[in-house]
Amino acid sequence: MHNETLRPESTPDELVNFRPLVQPVQRGSAKGALVDKHGRRITYVRLSITDRCDFRCTYCMAEEMTFLPRNAVMSLEECLRVARVFVGLGVNKLRITGGEPLVRKDALWLIERLGALPGLNNLVVTTNGSQLDRFARPLFAAGVKRINISLDTLRPERFRQITRIGDVHKVLNGIAAARTAGFRRTKLNVVMMRGTNDDEFIDLVQFALDNELDISFIEEMPLGDIHGRSQSYISADETRDRLAERFELLPSTEDSGGPARYWRIPGSTTRIGFISPHSHNFCDNCNRVRITARGELYPCLGQNDAVSLMEVLRSGADDDALRQAIVGGMGIKPLGHDFTQQMEAPQVVRFMSMTGG
Ligand code: SAM
Questions:
Q1: For the purposes of burial, counting CB atoms within 10 Å of the CB of 31, is it exposed (0-12), middle (13-18) or buried (19 or more)?
Q2: Helix (H) or strand (E) holding 122
Q3: I need a labelling partner for 164 at 20 to 30 A (CA). Which of 46, 116, 158, 287 fits?
Q4: What is the DSSP pairing of strand 296-298 with strand 305-308?
Q5: Measured from the CB, is residue 51 less than 6 Å from ligand 1?
């Protein structure tokens, strides 16, 4: 794996003159702010708590994956500490992801504590839904505000092909369990793949309408050592045009704090989102960073630069050192990514399951 990981003690040239616009909080004070060198305020962290998954989606992972050894993965206590320090720096939205976060042993232990963190007002989870029939209730009780569930097809055979091992019925049960548990505005995430699921977009929207779900269509990104993605790429505009042949779509200014742009269908509560990292790059307003299960801070999904928080965590250093490493990471957040040139040959060879979606 190719990672240009920065060691916290080494200051790269581009960081020499970098000063966060607002200094991080002093120990014990309530609020801070993270601002990158392009002036973007970072308020949203995606935290991957495992690289393991019970599915092997073809666009996300290799068929044969070598997972991280257990001691290379942040402990749940380390995850909690990292989250707490980010919240002290003004982060108010945290997405728990993976891999599949709900296959991590004792994930609930962490999620319950995150749910009680003062200042964190938007705790959300992205899951493949396979474990939700067991976990939906305790997640709701823990204070999780919203769940995103990946669902690229409703057809059992196709589902198995895309996930290589998954059972769509388990996911459909999980979606129902989320509703019964009290979750509203649950969102389906659909990766658009020409020749694989593009004949089902209308059915998927209808499913969302029937079940009072939101739904987002995602342009496939060239992450991980998978070649030839330009064959399957579909732009958000093309999908929207196709959906508009069946549904009346009204543009909406709603913002869920993430990268999706939304449309509404009159008479329904369903929001139809489009996440278009290729065709309508949203980097100008990026408010996010990602933490991998092995404690790397990636300021941009589409780049290889990262800061190792794990080294700080395991060095015995205090929270000030951790804050310093995080603030340093803001200095390497690039202006943006460019996926479009990379569909045949990805420059980011870590799989999405490594970085966390
Ligand atoms: N296991 C959980 C799940 O399935 O949602 C969380 C992790 S998964 C990596 C998070 C999201 O990333 C999913 O919605 C998945 O569809 C999306 N994803 C994975 N690889 C992708 C790619 N190459 N392009 C676009 N989205 C991708």
A1: exposed
A2: strand 122-127
A3: 46
A4: antiparallel
A5: no
